[in-house]
Amino acid sequence: xxxxxxxxxxxxxxxxxxxxxxxxxxxxxxxxxxxxxxxxxxxxxxxxxxxxxxxxxxxxxxxxxxxxxxxxxxxxxxxxxxxxxxxxxxxxxxxxxxxxxxxxxxxxxxxxxxxxxxxxxxxxxxxxxxxxxxxxxxxxx
Length: 141
Known about the structure:
About 25% of the residues lie in helices and about 35% in strands. By secondary structure, it is of the alpha+beta class.
């Protein structure tokens, strides 16, 4: 399995399906959130249990979330992925009460791998401002 195929499987099983139990089969012993503005875990190094907690908390307000991979490119120990994200806002998210509205976002992520093809972290740019704008539009008056 190539790193691109492995990353696609990780996105599908872990982020789209929310299969937390499978996370350890994709992750190295340390996962570094190197750059991810707006992500509460930015700059942190997570062990697999910490990553699973991040997954759980991130998916809670948007349990039906779905990443659609637009493009992938591999360079050395990294795979760059551009993506689209769509989810329904079904639980409170920060100051925004659940609205039941569809929220969309786009972004680009560079995922790094170790010599065993396990994920060791990411560097990401995502349109979180667009998410907050959509949530404000959907917020009750």
